[in-house]
Specification:
With 749 residues, the protein is of the alpha+beta class. Helix 19 runs antiparallel to helix 20.
């Protein structure tokens, strides 16, 4: 069929096959667009009556116009070939996405919400899909779900004499057995709740990575679907939220009457409407089921040498990272845990502030090639020790020691650990102790985020690789260090992010199971390459390997926000905040998502909390000022911005942000002087063109603003990732040059 013309459509390539026929990508020369042609199987429309019913159904379906439903344009024939003309949806199917493993709960919810909303729109028109499955859900390059093959297959199925039991495979056109509802198998009347059952099965698979009803024998599957209860979601994905488990169970009830009454009710339940989420709620209750949340407090350095602090902090980080891999356990991230270093606060106070049941305390001493570690697990609210252990190992056995401690804690808190998680907790390949120590020192420096310390961390990571060239984590350190220098504009982004990407790839060539390396690669792909699909794939892989790392959720949220996937971004940012409730940067991340979503008042709440926690934290001041500016509190915003960016002697630091604040506050001459100074500085060192463009956009200087944005595109300014969503550019969105930039950055979907 390639190269053939059907009607006015020229077939370009084959893109898929289903029960009804083969799907091709084709060109529509009249409207200059791509379409999908589904060429119907020769034996599918077996009579004039079936053809008439099929055409009538197609006419009804062509009126379904919803952003999450692939539009049906036409049903036509040429000679003896019948074909459907459908919207061409670039990207992959949900089945392709799930081939890489389960999705984070927030991502699965977001996709399910879009499917539910599409179903509700169709059901209101009296149309039921009847064959929902991951292969019938497309995922666009922007990550949006679109339902394919809506409601047509049943016309063919109803007209055939083939029974389900005689289908040739599980993908037979009489229905896809693992995704069928009991009433469908029993040939009872179907309605909208049949699709709700199908969406429940899809949601189960998205979260768990496997089908609720699996197997290769159709007869056995049919019996289980009709007679046996669906498995609990938590049995396939420990740690899943209780409300999602209950929601899926309701979708999969055998009785239609016991399911959600309609898809709109299901969408509301998926959003959690009516429920409040608080990061200051009471600590989780174990209810006799073991501990479900804990914090690893900074290990005490018992060496007597402050220069050895890096080693105690490094052991703390390693233990947090290991325990965060356990899906059934919520582990507080490093940033929040480190706020209690050297604290005199009581354990019950710490537990309430972090919302955890248990706390791990420890100490470390490194001397003479030996490592001594003590670890204590405590019931935080009761302030009682549950167990305590001491270890002494040769420094060369540090990796084994790390895994042994993590495994002992997992056993002590009686949390369920899956076989995959057990494998990840098992001791890794031995590492040269000199390389391990250099790496820990490098991470200690990198975590300080100062330009001097980050450059020093690079030397440490290079030292680690000289000691052990196969030490993959050292490459993650190098990647993160260079992307940090690019993000903070200490180094030109093109050079910094290119190095960050290269080192991440070199590390993954050594160890593809490293969540840290997948996250590092994702950062480079997003910030510099603008490879949105590649970055999302890497973030999802990092979260699959270690779902408990707050930073991965945080950075994934920023990617989603860049693509204007607002609900998903907010969900991911809030997951990060649950894992890192005292992190200043995580509060600003939630605020950023709300700011870019134009929810300025809500963003002020989160930025304000960050400001309360630390009034000296620069981004907390400048981000809060930005939102205050957008609600018209110009003088207050200017004062706060100056406080957050002042030089040590109290004078203003020239910046595009300051120029914008001055302009908004009515100090136009001063604003012009500041922007002129910024442009002079830009001749000598890196200044983001995006910021200068924003100033001109705010002033209504369209041509000047577009010119600076085009310069930002040419030099790969990492700030350009927010081109699609930044409010300061709203005045430019109708301009052809702006739309062309969106297209070149693949942000026009």
């Amino acid at each position: 069929m390639i190269g053939r013309t059907l009607g006015r459509y020229r077939i370009v390539e084959r893109i898929g096959e289903g029960g009804m026929g083969v799907v091709y990508r084709a060109e529509d020369p009249r409207l200059e667009r791509e379409v999908a042609l589904k060429v119907i199987r020769d034996d599918a429309l077996s009579s004039d009556d079936v053809r008439r019913r099929f055409r009538q159904e197609a006419r009804t379906l062509s009126r379904l116009l919803h952003p999450n439903i692939a539009t049906l344009f036409d049903f036509d024939s040429e000679g003896d070939v019948d074909f459907l003309v459908l919207e061409y949806v670039p990207g992959n199917t949900l089945a392709d996405l799930l081939a890489s493993g389960p999705l984070p709960e927030a991502r699965a919810r977001a996709i399910a919400i879009e499917i539910a909303e599409a179903l509700h729109a169709a059901h209101e028109q009296g149309v039921v899909h009847r064959d929902l499955k991951p292969r019938n859900v497309a995922i666009t390059p922007r990550g949006k779900a679109k339902i394919l093959d809506f409601g047509l297959a049943h016309v063919v199925v109803d007209a055939t004499v083939a029974s389900i039991a005689s289908t040739r495979s599980l993908e037979g056109f009489a229905g896809t057995v693992p995704y069928m509802a009991p009433e469908q198998i029993q040939q009872h009347p179907m309605d909208a709740r049949t699709d709700i059952h199908g969406l429940g099965l899809i949601l189960f698979e998205m979260v768990s990575g496997r089908r609720a009803f699996a197997g290769d024998d159709p007869a056995s599957l049919i019996y289980r679907i009709v007679h046996e209860p669906a498995p609990a979601l938590s049995s396939a994905r420990p740690g899943v939220s209780r409300d999602l488990e209950n929601l899926v169970a309701r979708c999969l009830e055998k009785s239609q009457a016991a399911r959600f009454p309609d898809a709109a009710a299901l969408a509301r339940a998926l959003r959690g409407e009516g429920a409040s989420v608080s990061t200051t709620s009471r600590p989780d209750s174990s209810s006799g089921e073991g501990i479900r949340s804990l914090a690893v407090l900074p290990f005490e350095n018992r060496s007597g040498d402050p220069a050895q602090d890096f080693f105690a902090d490094g052991l703390t980080d390693m233990l947090i990272t290991d325990l965060a891999q356990i899906g059934a356990l919520r582990v507080i991230s490093r940033t929040s845990a480190m706020r209690f270093k050297g604290t005199a606060r009581s354990l019950p106070e710490i537990a309430r502030e972090l919302n955890v049941q248990a706390v791990v305390e420890g100490s470390a001493m490194r001397a003479g090639g030996r490592v001594r570690v003590t670890v204590q697990l405590l019931d935080a609210l009761a302030d009682q020790s549950l167990w305590a252990r001491s270890y002494e190992r040769a420094e060369a056995d540090l990796i084994t020691l790390q895994s042994e401690v993590a495994g002992a804690i997992a056993e002590g808190i009686r949390v369920k650990v899956t076989p995959q998680e057990q494998a990840r907790l098992a001791p890794k390949k031995a590492v040269n102790p000199a390389a391990q120590v250099a790496y820990l020192r490098g991470r200690f420096l990198w975590n300080r985020w100062g330009a001097k310390e980050v450059r020093e961390s690079i030397a440490c990571f290079e030292e680690a690789l000289r000691a052990d060239g196969s030490y993959a984590l050292a490459y993650a350190g190098l990647s993160d260090a260079y992307t940090t220098l690019g993000t903070t504009m200490v180094m030109a982004p093109a050079e910094a992010f290119s190095k960050g990407k290269l080192f991440a790839q070199q590390g993954l060539a050594l160890d593809d199971s490293s969540a840290e390396l997948h996250g590092s690669l994702a950062n480079a792909l997003r910030s510099h390459d603008w490879d949105w699909a590649g970055a999302e794939r890497e973030y999802l892989r990092a979260l699959e390997l270690n779902p408990g790392v707050a930073e991965s959720h945080n950075r994934y949220a920023m990617l989603l926000m860049s693509l204007d996937r607002r609900e998903e971004a907010l969900a991911e940012a809030k997951v990060a905040l649950e894992r890192d409730p005292l992190s200043l940067i995580t509060y600003t991340a939630v605020g950023d998502v709300l700011f870019y979503s134009r929810r300025y008042t809500d963003s002020i709440t989160y930025y304000g909390r960050c400001h309360e926690m630390d009034p000296t934290f620069g981004p907390g001041n400048t981000d809060l000022a930005r939102s205050l500016e957008h609600v018209g509190r110009y003088d207050e915003a200017l004062e706060l911005f100056r406080k957050g960016t002042a030089q040590p002697d109290g004078t203003d630091t020239p910046s595009t942000g300051l120029a914008i604040m001055l302009w908004k506050a009515g100090q136009h001459d001063h604003a012009r002087r500041v922007i002129a100074e910024v442009k002079e500085i830009a001749k000598k060192r890196w200044i983001a063109p995006f910021g200068i463009a924003s100033f001109h956009a705010v002033r209504g200087e369209t041509e000047e603003a577009l010119g600076w944005l085009e310069r930002g595109y040419e030099v790969h300014d990492h700030s350009m990732v927010f081109l699609k969503v930044h409010p300061r550019l709203d005045a430019l969105r109708g301009e052809p040059r702006f739309r062309e930039l969106l297209k070149k950055m693949r942000l026009d979907q």
